[in-house]
Structures are given as structure tokens and as C-alpha cells.
Amino acid sequence: MDDEQLLTVDEAAARLRVSRWTLYCLIRSNELRSLKIRRRRLIPADAVTECIHNLMEAA
């Protein structure tokens, strides 16, 4: 697995151009998949793409 497949919260927020707070809201509402490894929250890169697609469909 390369480094580009899992994004940090800051990297995912930057890709979506939202704040960390908004990103955590997306995670809590199950609109954005994430995983937790010990204390780190990581977001699969394809989950960001999937989230964008789902949000566009809802708009």
C-alpha cells in the first residue's frame, strides 16, 4: 500500500477544501469513510472521491 492511499485528516480536508471540523462532521454522519489505527484517524483516498460523488448526487 503506498502513502497516497491513506490520507491524514489534514490531507483529506485539503482535498475536499473544507475545515478539519467539517471533515469530522462528515465522518460522524457516515458520509465519509475512515479508519482508526490506534490514535490516528486515516481516510482512504477512494473514500474522498466516493464522498464527493455522493454529495454531488444529493445536490
TrEMBL record:
Short name of any one Pfam family annotated for the protein: HTH_17
Residues spanning the membrane: none
SUPFAM superfamilies with a match to the protein in the record: Putative DNA-binding domain
InterPro entries hit by this protein: DNA-bd_dom_put_sf, HTH_17, SinI_DNA-bd
Coiled coil: none
Entry-linked NCBIfam families: excise
Listed name of the protein: Helix-turn-helix domain-containing protein
High-level lineage: Bacteria, Bacillati, Actinomycetota, Actinomycetes, Streptosporangiales
